[in-house]
Amino acid sequence: MSAVRAPFGRRAARVTAREIHGAYVVIRCRDTAGPRPLAGQFYMLQSAERWGGGEGERPFLPRAFSVLCAHASELHFLIEDVGPGTKRLCELQAGDELLLVGPLGNGFAPPRENREPLLVGGGVGIAPLAIWQDELGGRARALLGFRDGAHAAGAALLSGVVVATDDGSVGHHGLVTELLEEELDDRGDHVEVYACGPPAMLEAIRLMCAERELPAQLALESGMACGFGACFGCVVPTVDGYIRLCLDGPVLDASVLRTAAVAGAGH
Fold this sequence. Notes:
The protein has 267 residues and is an alpha/beta fold. The chain has 2 domains: 11-104, Elongation Factor Tu (Ef-tu), domain 3, CATH 2.40.30.10; 116-256, 3-Layer(aba) Sandwich (Rossmann fold). Helices cover 19% and strands 34% of the residues. It contains 6 helices and 18 strands. 45% of the residues are buried.
């Protein structure tokens, strides 16, 4: 896997825009002090103001988010309001200040043996696939799964998409892994799978690809508190023992994993 290393320390980035995509918010910010990230890398984010709550307004931990898009010095992040920290990030408006550390971790690697890339995402896990599709020249086919129609609005952030929804309100009524199984049955011999999403989805993809002896790169979701490997909060089991996802991931080759069903919040 490949990586661009982050400058030392936390830095400020001015929010340039806030966009609504159904159940998701895209926050754009200008980061002139950091390098351009690679697809699959992530940042630790927090707001510069009102970053805390509860008794004594205790500060929240930074939240880990994969990059959705990177153009020039502008970064885009896909956020869903699922708790107090993400709620605060979703409230940010143009002109507000975002504090970030990154890019961190390792990103995706090009397809092997001239294979065709096939992207598979679920929920906010579509974020690293969007920037990867951009880097691949927009040619990669994408299978995306969502809870319902409101969340499926996020599919517009990629091109050439086939959608599945749990409630059947948009596209295929069922799981995105069902779409993947059909796709692999039709032309699986010539693809390399790139996936990010909920742990159960990634584990199903890992097993499916292992059975067919297909290469796959998985961007795992796990709770991260620091992003630098100091807290050991994001360890995952591999065939060679445990690793820290923030340092050795979040993108891992499916063949090295004992399981992709790791617990914790996604990035």
